[in-house]
Design goal:
Structural class: alpha+beta
Low-confidence stretches: 1-34
Order of helices and strands: HEEEHHEEEEEEHHEHEHHEEEHEHEE
Radius of gyration: 22 Å
Number of strands: 17
Mean pLDDT: 86
Strand content: 25-35%
Strand order of the largest sheet: 2-1-4-5-6-7-8-9
Number of helices: 10
Distance between the termini: 21 Å
């Protein structure tokens, strides 16, 4: 993360390094006109675990395929880290969900510099009203965790650039575009948070340049804040047979599924009907309705009605595949108000897009369930409010018309 001489790094040169020639290139996804919705258009995993110079072009439904060890999970973890940083998390909070933490994310063969420093590099391109806004971040993980460089570009300008000038201080030196009497403004920023997420608190928008910086930062942050990592966990769902009823949001592991199902049924009959219809394609046997029942002490449990007037089936007795299918279908058919994600409240819902990260989208599912879920992802993606970035073990799923397929090559240990 620093030069061989041990001097502090200058972010732009490191961050804009071209990827290796054999790195996966973004799949062709057609033209991308300016949109009034901020969406992730590309993920760059420049140095993270097994990835070096990986670029993933993201469409409404993007499915990663490849053998074991090809880096599918690592790519989604990298996107999750970047999303949490964009939402304002500290570095420790951003890397906490990753197995092994930040130290485990450094590529194995990355050699430390003379001062023993190593790290990771991530980036993304966000498409929206300003066109493409590019964000790149360099994170030092050893010997201490800190951001050492960041660059935000858009509209033909470098809008924000930061670099660690003095390793003894917990600050990076930042400069941002103003287009005023002074072309840039310089100020220190914390080294444990993403500078782009802090810009709306530091810039008043007094010049056209500052307004451009604010608009680009808001476009990037809005897309990153609307990322929802989702991995339904059947064992945890069964452990929470009955949960407190209330206006809860669905957790990424779906352990509070019954309470959220009751909320959806009470608040939106159309979404509930769509969910029941989707279950008919993913559950064995007939499905008449999906409802909840009182379990005592303010608790509710979810039940599946097979036929009118017949005895119901408790949801927790379903198989692992049916439970995961149910939870993932609920995610695709709802939105930020029902899911545990914190989108920008100042942006109209019609301009927000939820990006669902689903590692192992077809895990535990049989062929029919997996095909139905990918088709549902495509239908929701066409509406423009939901995007899916997931990994699948069955390469044939990525061949669906609605999906953008990215096959990751086998990584050398």
């Amino acid at each position: 993360m620093t030069s061989p001489t041990g001097h502090p790094p200058r972010a732009p040169r490191d961050l804009l390094r071209d990827p290796p020639r054999d790195a996966p290139r973004p799949a062709h996804t057609g033209r991308h006109p300016h949109s009034d919705r901020a969406t992730l258009g590309e993920l760059r995993v420049s140095a993270f675990k097994s990835h070096r110079g990986t670029r993933l072009g993201l469409g409404p439904v993007t499915l990663l395929t490849g053998g074991s060890g090809s880096g599918k999970t690592a790519a989604l973890e990298a996107c999750g880290v970047l999303a949490r940083l964009g939402a304002g998390a500290t570095l420790e909070e951003a890397f906490a969900p990753v197995s092994g933490g930040a130290a485990a994310c450094v590529p194995q063969k990355a050699k430390p510099d003379a001062a023993g420093r190593r790290g990771v590099r991530l980036g993304c391109t966000v498409r929206g009203p300003l066109g493409d806004v590019r964000l790149d971040v360099a994170v030092q993980t050893e010997p201490e965790l800190r951001i050492v460089g960041e660059r935000l570009t858009g509209g033909g300008h470098t809008l924000l650039a930061t670099a660690l000038r003095d390793p003894r201080r917990d600050r990076v030196q930042a400069s941002w575009h103003t287009a005023g009497p002074a072309p840039v403004t310089r100020a220190p920023l914390p080294d444990d948070r993403l500078g782009t997420a802090l810009l709306p608190l530091r810039i008043g928008g007094r010049t056209d340049g500052e307004q451009l910086v604010l608009a680009a930062a808001e476009q990037a942050v809005l897309a990153l804040r609307s990322v929802y990592p989702c991995d339904p966990h059947p064992a945890r769902m069964r452990a929470a047979t009955a949960v407190p009823a209330g206006g809860e949001q669905l957790t990424p592991d779906s352990r509070n599924l019954p309470a959220v199902l009751r909320r959806v049924r009470d608040e939106c009959g159309l979404r509930h009907a769509a969910l029941v219809d989707a279950l008919r394609g993913g559950c064995a046997g007939p499905v008449h309705d999906l409802t909840t029942e009182e379990y005592g002490d303010g608790l509710v449990r979810a039940v599946l009605l097979r036929e009118p007037g017949q005895r119901s089936t408790p949801v927790e007795t379903l198989g692992d595949g049916e439970l995961r299918y149910l939870a993932l279908a609920l995610v695709l058919l709802t939105g930020p108000g029902v899911l545990a994600v914190d989108p920008a409240s100042e942006v109209l819902p019609a301009r927000q897009v939820l990006t669902v990260l689903a590692d192992g989208l077809d895990r535990c599912l049989d062929a029919r369930q997996a095909k139905e879920l990918v088709a549902l992802s495509g239908r929701m993606g066409e509406r423009g409010h939901i995007r899916v970035v997931g990994s699948v073990s069955d390469p044939s799923l990525a061949e669906a018309e609605c999906a953008t397929a990215m096959t990751l090559p086998q990584r050398r240990p």
